[in-house]
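step: validate -> pass
step: tokenize input -> pass
step: predict -> running
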Amino acid sequence: MSTAILTGPPVPGSSLEGDLRSLGFDVRVSPGAEETAALLAAAPAAERVAVVDSRFVGHVHALRLALTDPRFPLAAIPGALTAQPAARAGLTRALADAVPAAGGNGAVATSERTDALPDALAAALDAEGAAVHRPELGSLVATVPDDPQARNEARQAVAAVDDEAVRLRSAVKARDGFFTTYCISPYSRYIARWCARRGLTPNQVTTASLVTALIAAGAAATGTRAGFVAAGLLLLFSFVLDCTDGQLARYSLQYSTMGAWLDATFDRAKEYAYYAGLALGAARGGDDVWALALAAMVLQTCRHVVDFSFNEANHDAVSNTSPTAALSDRLDSVGWTVWVRRMIVLPIGERWAMIAVLTAVTTPRIVFYALLVGCAFAACYTTAGRLLRSLTRKATRTDRAAEALADLADSGPLAEAVARGGRSVAAKLPAFAAPVIAFVGGAAVVAAAAFSDYGSYVPVGAAVLYVLTSGLAVARPLKGALDWLVPPIFRAAEYGTVLAIAARADVPGALPAAFGVVAAVAYHHYDTVYRIRGGTGAPPRLLVRLIGGHEGRTLAVVLLAALLSATDLTIALTALAVAVALVVLVESIRFWVSSAAPAVHDEGEPA
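step: predict -> pass
step: emit ->
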């Protein structure tokens, strides 16, 4: 229960007190600022507190947006202000300053009018430098009328707008893909409302989506046409639920750190489990497509790392301008180009629809071929655009951006040791050196693993070179225009090496074991991304060192291939997958369950 303090004398015929109670507030009435201060001090320290002018007229959803969103410590609309426990001290100070200027009705007198006390408090908090969130209300009404005529006009304005319709529209993500916008959201928003009215939470819907996708993967693993048809239908239904959980969060303002993490990680778990199901189903029919399944996972993960790295590198860049960005803005004014550009990057809606339809009517091999071609084209398109933006913009990147890129690089103890010893050399290299050095080492180890005979020591030498280049690439802060390429190059090198080694082993079970290794490591990398997005920083360095860093794992895999038989390599890769998965899952679950990160809501994958 939260506490809402109504300031000023009651207004006859007002439903404000009932509206606040419907939002979960315990309402207290205060005739003036001094009484408001006393009620604020008496409210339990762990509760959210709202101060609302009794003259307020507006939509219930306007109050909901301002007073119940967990993401913002302070929020305000005209006539209403809220503070979460962490921001209560600032509200108390502002109220203490406002008491001498307040009139008996809980308002602050100015030379022109009588201001609402919540508005005066919000202005005082602004003056202190506090971040007071003011939600976009659009057509919703929120006002404090001064006289009966203005009050009547405000009530008429409220009656003219259906706030439930507004609430439903705002539950849908503002920027989404064509398939999601036109084929899912028109009805999934009503499923979200149905869930909200029955007390279901976004996390429960997210879990239901995961379970549905896992059942779809199981259906695909049967290898029968009926199983493939069922798998396609279930995958589409899983995606409907995947859209519903976010819409439910926006509809009911149930944002949470845990929810953002579950939504992001479950998306990857669903997609990659489905790849595995398709590969198992194909194997039942005598077609081995594990290499394609692993390649699809590698490509999709590397696409995401490109997006994440670019966004983090430019999150708070100074003078962040680019002719390419200006061209994109101009194209946005031409409606049809917006949808074309959103579709060709193959976002999750279009991608899952393609996978589902092709699963039902073709074979797993064709599904993976289509997926690889589509994702490769999308990766080239998005990466080329980011390269052009990076080369044409004039921007000074911050220490925060460099730290985020270093965390995304996932360097282990070997690369760190090389970086410490190579700082003087790195300082003399040109600005574009880091991604070039990373690419040379990564390409060398992947090529050696792919083209050398199994058991050869050539990949070991290439992996040693990769360790050296990886350390040198991060020996100085990643502030160059193209330094955001370093983390995705490392991901491609590590995952590509595991894929190549397993393929060269050419024994049953090697590629599925490699699939497990990449899945476990990819989880760690996604977990790192969402910790950074949540403002809590990367996983502990001890965890990164414990699982070896990208360069340590790459060296370990090529050493295992050189020292073990192909059959024993399968066992070793399986053990590595289990060990990495256990370590990162245990630490990740511990962190997210006990996390003090602010409530966030992820808007979905950027590509």
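step: describe -> Residues 364-392 form the longest helix (29 residues).
step: cleanup -> pass
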